[in-house]
Protein 1
Amino acid sequence: MKRLATLLVVVAVLASFVAACAAPPPEVIEKEVVEKEVPVTVEVVKEVVVEKEVVETKIVEKVVTATPEPTPERTERERTLIMSYPFEPSQIDPHAYFEAEINMPYNAVYETFYDLWGPDGEFTPRLAESYEWSEDGKTLTFKLRKGVKFHTGEDFNAETAKWNFDRLFDLNLSTAGNYAPYIDSVEAVDDYTLAFHMKEPTPGYHFMFAGNWAMKFVCPGAVEEHKTADDPWAHEWFKDHMCGTGPYKFVSYEHGQRLVIEKFDDYWGGWEGPHFDKMIERIVPESSTQRMLLGRGEIDLTCMPLELEDIKALQQEKGITCKSDPTILIFVISVKATDAGETGPIMSQVKVRQALAYAFNYDAVMENIMGIKGSRISDMLFNPAFEGYDPDHFVYTYDLEKARELLAEAGYPDGGFDLELMWLEGFPDYPRIAEMYQADLAKLGITLKVFGAPPATFLDRIAKPETTPDLVLRPRASGNPISYAWIEGWTTKMFPPNGLNEGYYYNERFDELWKAATVELDDAKRAEMVREAAAIASEEVPVIWIAAVNDVMCFTDSLDGFVHSPWYMYVYWPYNLYRE
Amino acid sequence: MRLQYIVQRFMWMVVSLIGISLITFVVSHMVPADPIRAVAGMEAKGEQVEELRRRYGLDRPLPEQYLRWVANLARGDLGLSIRTGQPVMEDLRRYAPATAELTLVAMFLVAVVGLPLGVVSALNKDGILDHLSRIIALSGVSMPIFWVSLILQIVFFSRLGVLPADGRVDVMINPPLRVTGLYTVDSLLAGDMVAFKSAARHLVLPAVNLAFGSLAVLTRMVRSSMLDVLGEDYVRTARAKGLRERRVILLHALRNALIPTTTTMALQIGALMGGVFLVELMFSWPGLGFYAMRSITLIDFPSIMGVAILMTTVYAIFNLLADLLYGLLDPRISIEGRSE
């Protein structure tokens, strides 16, 4: 009897698993939603017929074939955008660190004073309506938009905006680094006027309030509700929750799995026109798995570039498109320019660094490795939006003979020295780029040791000029078109650990030009200073400029409303996306 | 005496844990890396980095850091994860149930498939079934986990569309309210059959993938043990007494063959816990492997040590259970004798 009972239990367990593993019934949840939304059907059909006649006709035809019922309401799945990212963010408090792994939800839940659109960086109002600089360039005043509400229901105004800056400065984490060193104080002039009193004249600083890394505004009400004695700014709560002013509000976050947001009914922009009701970010580490999920319609959009092989395969699939858009992210090789360390005497010679720039096969990398994922860049002011951009600037090309001549002039006619190149892990193209460069340098008699390093190792190696590698292959990005802020990256101020001038490049004139540009209020003079600095860098090669990285996002053809700006990474503007 | 033996084993387990923690600590700190700098963000300024370093106690001398860590461990505190900023214990609570669920189902599969397959192979030595099980075993030990993952995903998800390829539950379904953290159990407790079905379906491919290698080892082990036992005098005697063949196989032969098999199963826990890292990555399974992989990339010492300690503890407990099981399987094996 006991044996029989055991047998029955085992059979029952197995049977439940077998039953569970059978092919799934058609979306049970969707059925529930359809039932719930029936009363709204007529209204929606009316709307659709007027506004999107052609698109909806297709759907009606499909349904009529299956059932004689009138046009059905869209299912929950159809009203939901499912996107994939390969990594889980470490935390999601926008006042802590920037996490690219969550950029779509960030830009759906949070908003900034301004947006940057187009390759020229068009400065477009969002939470602010206008801005004004004082005569002395030391006070920047924003007029804020009225009628904006936080997801907690309270008003967005000068007081709550100022409170957000208090939180940012008090937490003093990475994001604060863009503001704290420059802003002396923040003043709520009236309900909808916010003034920033700068420590020094800071021309162009208004761009710091737009773009990828710009200040985002969190709900004071949520902080009030979740703060503790040890955590007065509710940073712990915001590590895995979101609350802002954007079109979508936070629903849930299951670590390692998914983040769900849904439309915020009181959004100031309104809900006219087609939009998604809900968005889900899925975390799918493997590129091949993302490709399969997209192929089967389980996700609508892959937000970070897949492996080139997977992109190529998806481009062959019916009903899927892979779109390539330029971004602010670039790939560069930082070149050691200090005489410290074993290779210092070699690398500190300008002619050696120039030879290294001529030995890089730019076109082959574009053709064979980057494909649609990148495009060639030229020099420090590679972006036409940068103040001081010069279309006739000097561009290094692949020329081994020229490289050999320069090495001979530097006293190394047959090379005969060893260098090391470290790439920052996380970008699958880097090992291939490094190996290609290794082969070219071998032709010049230079032995290149290549290796990858995770961020923690990378930062440890560059911490001292004696240990910094000769060449560092890694991404860089400028979040806005402020040229002097961009070239600051190669000044002595940015020697590690205060910045990422890991080549320890130093040129007195370059530093002077940068410093002067930061306080120069005359646009033309400032542009000329930056242009001169870029020319110095072109001559002295602290960097080998490889490629601008494109956002390659693959998606189902039913999606539309793509708005992409090169000033944001891995983002199609969530509010504008919809399903046809 | 049995209690004394268990206490003694626990003491050894504590010594092992201290050893493992020391090795993990030394190795993770020997790596030339600065996790705080990485976590602070590439653009963080020097003083912000130093403030974070102080916050995590990483500005203290290494021996002091280790001793503090051990003292905190005694209070059940594994420190703060550098990457997530959360207590490591909280992170482990969040991610461990997914791994536990996957590993338990894989173990279940290994046991319910491996045992009968091994027995049948032994009884049909060099027959078709034996060859078939040999092929399965050889495939299981020779095919890399990531490759099997891809094949399973391509066949059952991409081509046939019968099983999901990633995650713990359908993305459009809300996960069940957390009680144990095991989705299949929690959904049953909540009476949510939609979630249960989804969770069970999502378990199939990763569990099969994880079980495959251990299944091969166990099948061959059972086969070999059974063949040894089937040639023993007491089996011949049992048959000579006229006992039914099924009784001879199950009660006399299999029971004795289970002793080495139990050891193999206990050791395979280690293999499963190792394999789970890759399987979780391939199937986007948000468990300890998934968590640890990200932590390793950022050299997040506290998280790495937390995962190592947890996995070592589980492994040691399963080995202890295996030792205790010997006594049940064969009364001639006494704990007292083993402990002497």
Protein 2
Amino acid sequence: MSAISLAGTAGTAERAQPRRARWYRQPALLAGAVLLAIILFMVIGAPLVTSYNPDTQNLNATLQGISGQHWLGTDQEGRDTFTRLLYGGRTDLQIAFLAVLFPFVLGTILGSLAGYFGGWVDIIIMRLVDIVVAFPFFVLIIALVFVLGPGPRSIYIAITLVGWVSYARIIRGEILVAKRQEYVLAAQSGGLSNLRIMARHLLPNVITQAIIYAMSDIVQDILAIVTLSYLGLGIQPPTPDWGTMISDGQNFLTTHWQLTTIPGIAVIITGLALSLIGDGLADLLRPGQS
Amino acid sequence: MGRMTFVIRRLLLLIPTAVGVTIIAFFLIHLIPGDPAATILGIHATPKRIALLHQQWGLNRPLASQYWLFMDRLVHGNLGQSLYYGVPVWGLITSHLPTTLWLIVYAGVLGVVISVPLAMIAASRKDAVRDHIVRVVPLLGLGMPAFWLALILQSELAVRLQLFPVTGYGSGPLGHLHAMFLPALTVAVALCPVVIRSLRASMLNVLGADYITTARAKGVPGHRLFVRHVLRNAVIPAVTVLGINIGFLVGGTVIVEQVFALPGIGNLMINSIFQRDFPVVQGVALVFGIMVVLVNLLTDVAYASLDPRVRFDR
């Protein structure tokens, strides 16, 4: 434990002046956190917010307008749109938050190895990064989910195979700088194993960049999930999800705008909350840059 | 001298990446669970047709020999036969490529046209209200699903107000410009947040430079200072950002083409997915990959020849 805190002070020696930037003084971070908290509360506490079941069809009450009974009306199968919005958020956010973990871990490990050992390890890993980066994000994700078959499992695999490269690049770059610091040289001459130096000394100092990036990566993942579902390759009906809601509603866009518009706005607001958190974290953890 | 070595080095680095792109495209088929031939054919699978595909793709051979076969065909411009259309994949791709290239260039230009003024507004007074607005509003674009924006624009501006055609890409250059405005705008909106952000940062950087202080001291008026001195120097990094994000730009066209029914290769890819036409999906993925690799190369070379520091070396 003391090793980590020592390492921490050594790494931040140049910015020793008192941290004026506290988290509650970061308007972006605060706004993003509040927004995300509201979204998560609505989505996780969906049964408390609405009394409808997201999958119960009511063919006597299809395509109803906005009313006191159905806050956002009903869809073509008479299901309550507001309820499906909340439960759809549950599906998409759960998958997105989980999906971001795998590439984060894989990319951090490979990036650390490349940055720390250099040489052939670095060349091989970075060539791999170049190759994956050559494919447009959506093209590779769509192609992978197509060959793997639709559903969440394929989404996790596709996002992991494509998403790790950004984390690997970020962590490698940070490690290249950090490994020349005195505390690492001290740990090396002290005879600590490479694994221990990487895990206990280097990673705690370089991981913040990856965490900041993860915020915008979740936004990317939500977009990927929603897009796949829109194309019919992602979440399969009747499971509620924002992408299928938009896709189902597009036939009624001129008469029932809310069916398509509202789920899209939900995606945008969630993305905004996460982007604000990412920006705020960046300002908080990287003082001096804006 | 330095520039030539840079270009040659960059070209050499291209080779392993390009080979890697072909390996990934090649391996796509082996990610299909079970027997790829049977899975792809689905309900149309008969032992005879399965055997034919096995023979065509060399699925019975060892992996290395399969890849060799794939590459041997590739260098001869043979990407296989479409299972659905029954014509060579290469022909399908070349006939769909112009639309996609149009869309990419159009969206790139629109992206710059939207981003530059906004970034200038933001950078002209750092931390002022307008700066905060320009910094926060594009964040909305970051999380905006492209197909959703496409649907909204289509229903409002094309169906309701009838300002643009609902689908299709028009005829002749002017027709393209008109018909493809909404698709290009959709792609550009997704691109803008990234470009505005980096352009603002590089403008602020330039504004702090000594030569700007000199120009100000000489009494160069504000707008002239911005256009002649700041913009010129800040646009180069922005173009690089555009180049780096070319993968993103190209990827964005896939879904947008689908919504607007533009006959580009993204649309071809999605339709082929619905028809389980594997050779076409594989071919399009490969072409997209190679395209991005080439554009990245061009960006690097362009940057090296635009960078004044290289010029000073001579």
